[in-house]
Amino acid sequence: MTDLDNELAAAWDEAPPAVRDAIFRIAVLSRIERHRFRRRMAALLTTGFAAYVIAAALAPQLNSTVAGMSENSVLTLVGLAFVVSTGWGLSRAFRIKLR
Amino acid sequence: MRDDDETALVRQSAAGSEAAFAALVDRHQRAVRTFLRRICHDREEAEDLAQETFLTAWSTLRRFKGNSALRTWLFAIAWRKARNARRGWFRGRARDHAWAERQELERTINAGQEEAISVRRAVASLPLEQRAALALCLGGEFSHTEAADVLGIPLGTVKSHVKRGRSKLKDMLGGDR
Q: Is residue A68 classed as helix, strand or coil in its secondary structure?
């Protein structure tokens, strides 16, 4: 290397990073986890919105079906739909395996 | 042996092992951060880009086919991050950069490092591509061919960047010796 090369290297790297840097490693892993969380939330919100749109589209048919049902049956059906959709959405967002 | 280790770590990381990826980060963080510190305007930006580089590497590791060395692939990601950040820099971080530069200038003058300022100023005045080519080839561990792979430009262009960059620096620093 020439004198200029040595001078450049010395000035460029006067305080180089440590060979092993646990703080940097942890910062990277934290960033990965935040990124993963944001993606999960985006998937959950998208799923929720899609479910809302589908429900809204099916509302006329649902109305006529529900009109002939008792109040308890309606509540049971709504509760069941809520539990199933929430469970499915959460399992998709967090990749939880449901048996 | 090291290449075999690294291949195994890449495979495990691509399968989702954070421990394996952490080991890869440990192996390459120093080189990536050094490269980014050389070509970025300030250290904080370089550190941020280095973390983003490894985040992107984690997200796209399945696409790494092993056609090049992992280090070359990582540096190519780092280079793209730095190049894209420059556009953001021009869009409104000029004031922040000027402030950071003043702080650094005061710090290095107080530490009696006027010569280091001179070299860093000279390097900072080079176009980004020349700076990057110099950072990779001068004092670094990259051949011109590897640098061409990292920067995504022809080999002849890399050689030209290194030659011109070196020549400009010599002219700029010549009066300080």
A: coil
